[in-house]
Amino acid sequence: MDTHNPKVSIIMGAYNCAPTLTECIESLLNQTYTNWELILCDDGSTDQTYDIAEKYADAYKQIILIQNKKNEGLAYTLNRCLKYAKGDYIARQDGDDRSRPERLEKETAVLKNHPEFDIVSTGMAFFDERGYWGEMTSAERPQPGDFITQSPFCHAPCMIRRQALLDVKGYSTDRKTYRAEDYDLWFRMYANGSRGYNIPEPLYDVRDDRGAIARRKYIYRLNEAYVRFTGYKRLKLPFKSYPYVLRTLIIGILPGWAYRKLRRKRYRFS
Prior knowledge:
- The protein is an alpha/beta fold.
- It contains ten helices and nine strands.
- Strands 1, 2, 3, 4, 5, 6, 7, 8 and 9 form a nine-stranded mixed beta sheet that branches.
- Strand 6 and strand 7 form a beta hairpin.
- Helix 8 runs antiparallel to helix 9.
């Protein structure tokens, strides 16, 4: 493991992740690919997140720990992590999820062997208190038309060429893109000429439990609608795409139980 010249920099914003952070970091330490560093930023947590992260940073040289003085949000935090990153490839990880052992190895292989791609991501497996309940996959080689119905890449398991990310100035910190910063990023990268690939297997486990549903707020749907509207214009998508802006707002008014049922029907195991 080369801690001086890592090929991959994993950037992570962690906010009140104390119950899940150990499992998350251990999943990275168990990767078959080892030439990575983790830039972990505690985003003003009020629980034991920082203390847990500090123990790992003290034990492993490839883990760099930083801290925001207050909660700043994901986009700001990831941009701050980028300033510390040394790798040619920038990977993501959320503090309550798990990467499967071969995730980084398979993603780096795609970027190494396919210079035409600036983005690579994978499918995701959803789990909650009872275990796994579904999976999500996306088009293998997303085209602009694949942006219409949903984000073409899963954000948490993605890996991006550093230069391509810097070329669009990283994540937008505009409040109108909050909680849709990944979708906005893909729109801007594709408008700038980047293209990507989705590995058609779940190499990432995303925690999707009752707490995740409880964090749903309508303002985030308004933000997604804004990102869709501006993104469709960036990619010059046809006018028939625009009803999906309204669809986003309609889904946002569903009660929690109805949204959860719809989501599980969409991603449940076939």
